[in-house]
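Example with several molecule types.
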Amino acid sequence: MEEMLESNEMIIHLGPQHPMQPGPFRLNLRLKGETVMDADVELGYIHKGIEKILENKTYLQGITIVDRICYLVALTNEECFVGCAEKLLGIEPPARSQYIRVILEELSRIQSHLLGLGEFGEFIGFVSMFMYTIKEREDILTLIDMVTGARVTHSYLKFGGVRDDLPAGFKEKALPVLNNLKKVISDYEEMFQSDRIYRERTAGVGILTADVAKSLGVSGPALRATGVPFDIRKNEPYLVYKDLDFKVCTETAGDCAARVQVRLNEMRESIYILEQCFDQIPNGPLFPEGTPYGRRTPVMRVPAGEVFHRVEDPRGEMGMYMISDGTDKPYRVKVRGPYFPTLQALPPLIKGTTVADVAAISGSMDGCTSEADR
Amino acid sequence: MDARTIIESLTGKFPEAISEAGIESPIRIRAYVDKEKAKEVCQYLKDSLQFDHLCSVCGVDYPPRNELESVYHIASYDHPVVLMLKARLPRNAPEIESIVPVYWNANWYERETYELYGIVFKNHPNLKPLLLPEEMLGEWPLRKDYEGFPNKTARNLV
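Resulting structure tokens for the full complex:
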């Protein structure tokens, strides 16, 4: 990049330790005055080699590893990994387990969006937003902790079910938190909209059109903010999502404000889904009856085959491609994380903007570099 | 557009290049593609069959068959079918045409597959390591016979 510099241009490096992006990656910007002429992303600082590790661990051990792909969405990662193995095994969790999974995954979506909003606020200088959202997120994490016994890495899903049932009185504890959250989300919305600085820093900044977003391979809230109603929960329903009533949140502007608005609305939909789950959840076993799968299945052989399973992660489409050769370890697991294409789309998106907007744009993408690196 | 229509259209258009095409479930289809024709098939998928969303590109190593496979998962924003397209490559000289001109976001996936498996994507705009340091080029860490960098320590760890 240095060789192409003109005399009035300069290079600045954002990251790997810059608070602009959570997680270490480096963004090299070629600037002319304040305008970004060119951008280049370097990643790989925290490459963990998860795909190689998974090939050398049993399926059950693999669950603890996929938690670490992105620990903000550990439950959705587990869902994808466990879902792949379940498809190969030809088993389906009983209804109660499926509802418990939906409850936890939606709670997980809410906490991820809350943190994403807070961090976005921080990037554009709205630091108190982070204080507000982290407080609400704590309540959600407490609810998840009550069920799984862990705050971020849960190892909670098992093949064919879940490790433990919901604790007694979970619904009574959860509903006041969710009712409070509904109020708080409206407060956030009002806070954002009444803030002139916020409006000017987000509205019309980093505009992604539907066609461009599709060709860049973007998914999740960043895509839905351009008006494309693409949501794996609707397009390819897994678990009991086809029995639940919810709508896919879309916006049309495609700018930073629209991406934030999609996340706010998605939290409302998640609360609505949770309320339905609490009403509808049936009693019954946690694991399919008449099969050897249960809470204790230390050694499990999976029939040979290959499968590609997708779930809707808070950041978009999470897919895993699993090949089994009939032993107790996967032959190959390819993780297709939602943030990888979104991060790849960052350089073309910030080209031509000003350097102050870079933080707003990359923050509104709600990235997890750890997941892109794997 | 359903799985059967897509398979029939694909095998009808490329009778030589597409082999072992099959339907796994109403929303999952698979096929092998001749490595010389991969880009052409992708272009057809994108233009005529609404496959406008490239999910991923990855490699798989099969030492007993002395083969590497380059696997493309291609989906659509409009219909729910996901196509798994695979190309067989010889293990000693794996080369395939890059599909970046067709799918923009194949760029990083192909770079990742190159550094981890050593599959060379011809005419890729910038084929250099993405995640790993450059001194690991030539090690191909995700191949099955990889033993660890630099002193083969990984064998003891796993």
